[in-house]
From TrEMBL:
It comes from Thermococcus litoralis (strain ATCC 51850 / DSM 5473 / JCM 8560 / NS-C). Its EC number is 2.5.1.19. GO terms for molecular function: 3-phosphoshikimate 1-carboxyvinyltransferase activity. Residues 4-394 form the Enolpyruvate transferase domain. PANTHER family: AROM/DEHYDROQUINATE SYNTHASE (PTHR21090), PENTAFUNCTIONAL AROM POLYPEPTIDE (PTHR21090:SF5). Catalyzes the transfer of the enolpyruvyl moiety of phosphoenolpyruvate (PEP) to the 5-hydroxyl of shikimate-3-phosphate (S3P) to produce enolpyruvyl shikimate-3-phosphate and inorganic phosphate. This is 3-phosphoshikimate 1-carboxyvinyltransferase. One of its GO terms (biological process) is amino acid biosynthetic process. Belongs to the EPSP synthase family. The lineage of its organism: Archaea, Methanobacteriati, Methanobacteriota, Thermococci, Thermococcales. It is found in: Cytoplasm. InterPro entries: Enolpyruvate_Tfrase_dom, Enolpyruvate_Tfrase_sf, EPSP_synthase, EPSP_synthase_CS, RNA3'P_cycl/enolpyr_Trfase_a/b. The keyword Cytoplasm applies. The active site is at D288. It holds the Pfam family EPSP_synthase.
Length: 399
């Protein structure tokens, strides 16, 4: 795809439904005692992988309505590239008598599963392998488990969902991406799950109620369009609830730190730019913002430092991916163990790679809009992992 620089980006659009909440609602509907209706679910590669996982576990699903099985049955779950689908399926397979096979695409086989596997083994499940493909033979013995969450909060979220089925006490050690754990708890409450907590120690009681659940808008996907407003004009994204706990709501605070103006309405966010200046921040609690934060830093005056502990374990090594791409655009970057140092200026158009990572593809598309000269972005299909309509939405903002 060729992307040429534009004079301005201005307009408004609706945020697509949240990918993270869609995953949670589907898996809780699988565990529920009765039928659920999921309103406005996100349809993308990752949530289709989760729908297939529900079918593998015996649910009858048509995208909106989920009729759970009497008891989930063991099956074969192919999670594509979806880390959330894989971790939640591995955890829930611990509640099932019999052996479930979970596998994924090439990159997902390289992504960490060990902390979750160790926790399931501690609970008495038989798990062979510490990365995909692996099999899980349940059932676990309900009890107390401690999980190392330094590589992914999804290990904690998966165990909390398992707890909603069998009853568990879960202690999370060194969690990253902590707001995603809050998103899991909030969705569990919506499905009538009872739990108590003390910090990151949780006691989850078994029982999930069939529910009509409406998926809110996705702040992670909205961040790319809002960044374009900060960099090149003014953008408003509707369908974003102020009363939410999504991790990438923190992206708005980061934009303000860069010097952008952010207006938070009851159900929308509006951003416009100004003279942007360098920042130093740790996004370990909102890691999906890293690629687009690096792009904003590439246009902000001064030297920014942006880091997060778990960036190398995503759909790509996102530190390396952004270092390679921004360097090709003539941006001075220094790669750190857990992030990048970025000297802001005026990037040049270049041929850049997506590394088959949807957030790299979307971030570099925004970077290209302000560059000196056209850019070529290879393999942009990965945007369908989270937002198949990304380029349609972006064109709408280009007048
Ligand atoms: O629980 C979730 O929905 C997610 C948690 C985060 O992963 P980590 O907890 O592995 O950082 C995030 O990167 C991912 O896009 C979605
Ligand atoms: C990392 C992501 O998702 P997952 O972990 O579910 O693959 C993402 O959407 O950026």
């Amino acid at each position: 795809m060729i992307i040429r620089p534009v004079d301005e980006v201005r307009g408004e659009l609706d945020a697509p439904p949240s990918k993270s909440y869609t995953h949670r609602a589907y898996f809780l509907a699988l565990l529920a005692e009765g039928r659920s209706t999921i309103e406005n679910p996100l349809v993308c590669d990752d949530t289709l992988a989760t729908l297939n996982a529900l079918r593998a576990f015996g649910a009858d699903v048509d995208g909106k309505t989920v009729v759970p099985p009497e008891e989930p049955s063991p099956g074969f779950v192919y999670a594509r590239e979806s880390g959330t689908t894989a971790r939640f399926s591995i955890a829930l397979a611990g509640s099932i008598e019999g052996k479930t096979l979970i596998d994924g695409a090439r990159r997902l086989r390289e992504r960490p599963m060990e902390g979750l596997v160790k926790a399931l083994k501690d609970l008495g499940a038989e798990v062979d392998g510490f990365s995909l493909p692996l099999t899980v033979k349940g059932p676990v013995k309900p009890g107390r488990v401690s999980v190392d969450a330094s590589k992914s909060s999804q290990f904690v979220s998966g165990l909390l969902l398992l707890g909603a089925k069998v009853g568990l006490k879960v202690e999370a050690r060194n969690p990253v991406s902590k707001p995603y754990i809050e998103m899991t708890l909030r969705t569990m409450e919506a499905f009538g799950v009872e739990f108590e907590r003390d910090g990151f120690y949780f006691e989850v009681y078994p029982g999930v109620k069939g529910t009509r659940y409406k998926v809110p808008g996705d702040y992670s996907t909205a961040s790319f369009f809002l960044a374009a407003g900060a960099l090149y004009g003014k953008v408003r994204v509707n369908n974003l609830l102020r009363e939410d706990v999504q991790a990438d709501m923190a992206f708005l605070d980061a934009l303000e730190e860069f010097g952008a103006r952010v207006k938070r309405g009851r159900d929308y966010v509006e951003v416009d730019g100004g003279e942007l200046k360098a920042v130093a921040l740790d996004c370990s609690d909102f890691p999906d913002s890293f690629p687009i934060l690096a792009v904003v830093a590439a246009y902000a005056k001064g030297r920014s430092v942006i880091r997060a502990r778990q960036l190398r374990f995503k759909e790509s090594d996102r530190v390396r991916a952004m270092a390679v791409n921004l360097s090709r655009m003539g941006v001075k970057v220094r790669e750190l163990e857990d992030g990048l140092e970025i000297e802001g200026g005026r990037p040049r158009g270049a041929k850049v790679e997506t590394f088959n990572d949807h957030r790299i593809a979307m971030a570099m598309s925004i970077a290209a809009l302000g560059a000196e000269g056209p850019s070529v972005i290879e393999d942009t299909e990965s945007v369908s992992k989270s937002h198949p309509g990304f380029f349609d939405d972006l064109r709408r903002l280009l007048g």
